[in-house]
Specification:
nine-stranded mixed β-sheet; Pnp Oxidase, Chain A; 10% helix
């Protein structure tokens, strides 16, 4: 899917020097806990939400139109709050990723929503995992089985 950058972003991309950096924002939904982090040295406020500076590395998903996009995320595990939440979850962690310009933090230039963090590994320094979209094509349809004894109005 082609990306539609704002005119300001296009001018920054094409400029020989960039005075308005791009910042990655990540929202991690760990059950009732929500962690908002940015790859920056200071806090970023985007759409009224505060993203705390936190070290992480992201490899963007390859969108070739034939396979489900799969990104990779490595986030530091220095304060151990995130790993405590991950250990208690039954389902994979939900993740939203956005790329914003510092001058326009409320306008995401790139957005990946409702990714799931799977194949998670961790050690004392970092948490690593694959970010994938839900496999909607692999789900059973319909999700329920309907029998005349239980649903006589359908038959």
């Amino acid at each position: 899917m082609p990306r539609a950058f704002s005119p300001e972003a296009v001018s920054q991309i094409n400029a020989s020097t960039n005075d308005d950096p791009f910042i990655w924002l990540i929202t991690l939904y760990a059950g009732k806990d929500v962690f908002r982090v940015c790859r920056n040295n200071e806090k970023i406020v985007s759409r009224g939400l505060t993203f705390e500076p936190y070290p992480f590395e992201i490899i963007e998903p390859i969108e070739d139109g034939e396979t489900m996009p799969r990104a990779q995320l490595t986030i530091d595990n220095v304060d151990r709050l995130l790993i405590q939440s991950i250990r208690t979850l039954q389902d994979p962690l939900r993740v939203d990723i956005e790329l914003v310009m510092v001058s326009e933090p409320d306008v995401p230039q790139i957005r990946y929503q409702a990714l799931r963090l799977k194949a998670v590994t961790w050690d004392e320094l970092s948490i690593r995992g694959d970010l994938v979209y839900e496999d909607l094509f692999g789900l059973a349809y319909p999700a329920e089985s309907f029998y005349p004894q239980e649903y006589p109005g359908l038959f």
